[in-house]
Amino acid sequence: MRYYLYAYLYVVFAVDAMYLLPWATVLRLPGFGWRTLAEMGVFLGVLAVGLAHAWRRGLLRWL
Predict the structure, then answer these.
(1) Where are the alpha helices (DSSP H) in 1-63?
(2) Where are the membrane-spanning stretches (predicted)?
(3) Whole-angstrom Cα distance, residue 8 to residue 30?
């Protein structure tokens, strides 16, 4: 059962990386400004809350 938890966390952060790379490449283009930066901040904030919750419950320990 623990393996599935690690696999799920990997998928979550792999999807995060897939969203960050294209966003970082178009951030300086015209039309992508503070609104885009705020949307990515919300996205990363939700991921950070999920990671903090998993950490607090002790789900990130290997033993």
Answers:
(1) 2-26, 34-56
(2) 7-26, 32-55
(3) 36
